[in-house]
Every structure is written in C-alpha cells, then in structure tokens.
C-alpha cells in the first residue's frame, strides 16, 4: 500500500516543473526522499539555487500536487541544499537533451 | 529563508528606465548634447544624467530590489520604500534636467531647480541605499559585498552631485565652487566605476552562475577583484578631494585610479571566464550570449583607454571612451539581464501560484529568442559603430548610429512587452485555471 502511495505521489509530482530547465522535478532529481507513515507524507527535496524566488513556488507546488493524491492525509516538505543538487541526478536521456555534460 | 519573494515594483523601475533610455537616444538623434555640443555643456549634462540616473541607475535599483534578497537569501528590509523612492528619483531627475536646461538658456534660468533636484535625488537614492544596504548587510559575503561597495560609491556620487548642484545655484561657497571646477571626474568615476560597474559585476557573478548552473566564483578571487575596484574608487574619492584641497591637480590620482581600474577589469575577466568554464548548461541562452557582447565592450573600453593614454589623446576622445563604457558595457549588460529577469519574474508571478495544480510552460516559452536576438545585435553593432564614428570625429555618422541603437532598443522593448503579455505562450498552457495575467508595470503580489 505504501509503495503504491509513493508511486502515486511520484506521478503527481510530474506536474511540477523547474521553470528554468523545463522538466518535472522527479526526472530532474530534485526529490531526494518520499516517506509515508499512516498517510502523513514527508518529502525531502532540493532545487538548483538557494535563495532563488522559484524555490518557494516549487515547495508550494509540491504540496498542492501531493495533497490531491488519494490516501494522503498531510504533507510536510523539507527543502534542503545538503547535498547540493547536481546534473548527475537528472534522468540520462533528459540530461542529454538539456545539453549537460555527463559528469558534472 | 530559502526563497526570496517577488519584488512588486521591479517592473515599474524597468519600465521607467527603458522610457528614459528611449529619451536619451532621441536626444542623441536630435543632436542634443555631445558630440553636437561640448562635453561640459548643459545639453550634455542633460543627456548624461538622463542616461546615468534615468536609465542605468533606475534599472539597477529595480534589479537590486529583486536580487539583493536572492544574493543574501534574506527578505528585503522594506518593500514599502521602493515606490516612493522611484517617485523621488523621477521627480528629482526632472528637476535636475530642468535646471540644466535653464543653465543652457533653453528654459528660464531657475537655478534653484538644481538644488531641489539634488535634494529629491538624495532622498530617493538614500531610501534605496538604506533598504538595499540593510538587506545586504545581513550576509555580507560573495557578490553582496560588491553591492555594498556599489552603494557606498553611490553615496559618494550623490554627495558630489549635490555639492555641484548647490554650487551652480551659488549656495555652496568657495569650497563648493572649487569642487565644481575640478571634481567632475571624481563624480563620474564614483558613479560609473563604483556604483554602476562594481554593482553590475557583483550581480553578474550571481546571475551568470544561476542561469548557467555554474560554480560560484572562488571567494578569494572575487575578493581580489573587489579589493582592486574598491581601492580605485576610494583613491579617486579621498585622494581626489585632497588633491583639490591642495590645488595639486588630479593627474597623479587619476593615473593610479586608471591602473587599478585596468587591474579590476582584468581580474573580473578572469572570474567570468572561470564561471563560463564551470557551467553545467552547455547551451547558452540569449541573455548570456548578449552579456558576452557587453564583456567584449568592457575589454574594448580598457584597451581603448590604454591606447588613448599612450597616444596622449585621452582628453580629446574622452567622449568616445565614456560612450563605449556606458552603452557597450553597462547598458549592454543591463539590457541582456533585464530581458531575462522580466521573463523569469513574469513566469514566477503568473505560473508559480498554480504550480502543482496545472501544467505550466517553461520560462523559455515566454520569450522568442530567435526573434529577439536581432534587436540586441543591431544595438551592439550600432554602439561599436558609434564609438568608431566618435573617434573619427564624424558626428553625422554617429547620429545614424544613435538611430540604429534606437531601432534596436524599440525592438527589445517590444519583446519585453510581449513577454509581460504572455504573447508567445501557446494555449492551453498560456493561462491555466487559477492563473492571472500579469500587469505590464508591476507585479500583482
């Protein structure tokens, strides 16, 4: 059940994009962890740049998307920059289309 | 604080700044000010202050109101001061220009307008300095230190300017009169070199790293760049005042400042190359490619300055040198970054609130880079052509260059307006349920 819920949450997060890179935050590797305990969801995530005004909207967007998933009772989002995001976290085919070097 | 909020009045600053840039170019096309008039003439004073206060300073203040909170990851000290400051700056500039036009006989000689303008500008810039300074001071590290040095230089620039304005009205005594007679180069160096250039350098470090996903510049390296630049401005201001007080002439001071200025440009060039080398995004967006053209103008300004000094013709061609610094380096960089900032903030304002609830476009979907690039190229080509025509003493050809610049600027303004209107975003992504179209001149927040 928990695995199904985590899968549903991942699917729901695909509507949240990084506005600069233009891909969803799951494929970009922004989501570090999704934990669920009795419908209480805790998402640990990152962004490319601390202090960027988009960070606030990313966080709000994740909350809006996740709270609509059936089975979710509450959402807690932890924004962290440790470890910092790196392009190596991007899905390989997207990384190539974005023009990132393979190792960075 | 992890993310900064959207600055409500940055778009208003940008709109006012672009309007003043248009006025400046119209004046050049209409042969008002240099090169049709002498560098120290009232008409040239009008032109220079329209460009430096109306265009560059207002645009820089608007950008800083958004980006100082990003630089230090802290909220702006007071969002409420932004609009009154813009009003004071605009009213102050209008009064100052009317005073200059009075000096030149184009308006009645109401010399009191100059001190009135200076007071309004001092209060307006004062609000900005306190607002941004107290924000940046919360974490004075990295690029924020450049901004603090820039703001200190702004204080010096405004002080010189106010003394000159009062001296023109005959209200500053003999000290004011001698400052007015000899201190204009110090005013220009503090403004163009300290306030505008050091601030532009600091902001560019962060914006280039952010938009190219590059490593931040090594703190020790950027500190060295800042030290050279700040020392140049300090020597210009403090040493210059002493030299005027001792009536010893400014040549020695200006020579040291020139050497330190060149060192600052070289060190900045090294830092920018490091950012480009470490970038993770290999494909460059239009704003970065156009910023490169402004870096070329900065390097060319340095080379031109050296050549003019070595050939003993710096004083003769001072106008061409300053023109390249103002329109090639400073305006080129500000235009490139303004184009990107408008798109980015418009995206945040329109689509940020609906993220997670509906599919949204990318920032790149708000702009049409292929269409916009020609306006930037026309602008930069015209600036370089204009510089050459000033060096060749061809005022008619320079006027044609100014007209070309104007065409480029009108094209860029049109692109920026289209971005605010979401004109290039395809349906159904353009306005998803719950999204509000942005206002052209301010952020709905």
TrEMBL record, chain A:
<dbReference type="Pfam" id="PF01883">
    <property type="entry name" value="FeS_assembly_P"/>
</dbReference>
<dbReference type="InterPro" id="IPR034904">
    <property type="entry name" value="FSCA_dom_sf"/>
</dbReference>
<dbReference type="InterPro" id="IPR002744">
    <property type="entry name" value="MIP18-like"/>
</dbReference>
<dbReference type="InterPro" id="IPR052339">
    <property type="entry name" value="Fe-S_Maturation_MIP18"/>
</dbReference>
<feature type="domain" description="MIP18 family-like">
    <location>
        <begin position="9"/>
        <end position="76"/>
    </location>
</feature>
<protein>
    <submittedName>
        <fullName>Aromatic ring hydroxylase</fullName>
    </submittedName>
</protein>
């Amino acid at each position: 059940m928990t695995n199904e819920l985590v899968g549903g949450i991942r699917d729901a997060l695909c509507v949240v994009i990084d506005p600069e890179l233009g891909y969803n935050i799951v494929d970009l590797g922004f989501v570090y962890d999704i934990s669920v305990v009795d419908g209480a969801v805790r998402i640990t995530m990152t962004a490319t740049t601390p202090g960027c005004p988009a960070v606030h909207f990313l966080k709000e967007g994740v909350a809006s998307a996740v709270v609509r998933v059936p089975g979710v009772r509450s959402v807690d989002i932890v924004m962290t920059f440790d470890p910092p995001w790196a392009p190596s976290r991007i899905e390989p085919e997207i990384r190539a289309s974005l023009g990132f070097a393979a190792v960075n | 604080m992890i993310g900064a909020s959207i600055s409500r009045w940055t778009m208003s600053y940008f709109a006012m700044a672009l309007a003043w840039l248009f006025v400046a170019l119209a004046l050049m096309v209409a042969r008002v000010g240099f090169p049709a008039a002498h560098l120290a003439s009232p008409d040239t004073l009008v032109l220079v202050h329209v460009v430096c206060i109306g265009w560059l300073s207002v645009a820089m203040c608007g950008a800083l109101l958004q980006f100082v909170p990003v630089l230090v990851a802290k909220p702006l000290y007071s969002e409420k001061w932004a609009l009154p400051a813009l009003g004071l700056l605009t009213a102050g500039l209008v009064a100052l220009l009317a005073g200059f036009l009075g000096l030149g006989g184009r308006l009645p000689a109401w010399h009191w307008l100059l001190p009135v303008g200076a007071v309004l500008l001092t209060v307006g810039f004062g609000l900005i300095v306190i607002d941004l300074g107290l924000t940046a001071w919360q974490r004075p590290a990295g690029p924020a230190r450049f901004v603090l040095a820039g703001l200190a230089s702004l204080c010096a620039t405004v002080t010189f300017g106010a003394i000159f304005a009062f001296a023109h009205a005959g209200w500053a005594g003999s000290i004011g009169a001698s400052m007015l007679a000899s201190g204009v180069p110090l005013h220009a160096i503090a403004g163009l070199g300290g306030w505008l250039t050091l601030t532009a350098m600091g902001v560019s470090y962060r914006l280039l790293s952010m938009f190219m996903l590059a490593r931040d510049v090594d703190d020790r390296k950027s500190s060295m760049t800042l030290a050279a630049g700040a020392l140049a401005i300090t020597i210009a201001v403090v040493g210059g005042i002493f030299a005027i007080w001792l009536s010893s002439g400014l040549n020695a001071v200006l020579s040291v400042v020139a050497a330190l200025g060149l060192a600052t440009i070289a060190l900045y060039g090294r830092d920018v190359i490091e950012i480009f080398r470490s970038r993770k995004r290999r494909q460059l967006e239009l704003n970065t490619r156009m910023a490169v053209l402004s870096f070329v103008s900065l390097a060319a300004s340095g080379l031109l300055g050296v050549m003019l000094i070595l050939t003993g013709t710096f004083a003769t061609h001072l106008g061409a040198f300053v023109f390249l610094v103002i329109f090639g380096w400073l305006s080129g960089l500000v235009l490139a970054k303004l184009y990107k900032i408008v798109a980015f903030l418009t995206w945040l304002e329109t689509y940020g609130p609906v993220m997670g609830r509906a599919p949204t476009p990318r920032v790149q979907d708000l702009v049409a880079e292929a269409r916009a690039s020609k306006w930037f190229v026309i602008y930069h080509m015209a600036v370089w052509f204009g510089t050459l025509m000033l060096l060749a003493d061809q005022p008619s050809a320079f006027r044609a260059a100014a007209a070309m610049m104007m065409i480029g600027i009108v094209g860029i303004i049109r692109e920026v307006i289209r971005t605010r209107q979401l004109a290039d975003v395809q349906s159904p992504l353009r306005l998803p349920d719950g999204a509000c179209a942005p206002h052209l001149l301010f952020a709905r927040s």
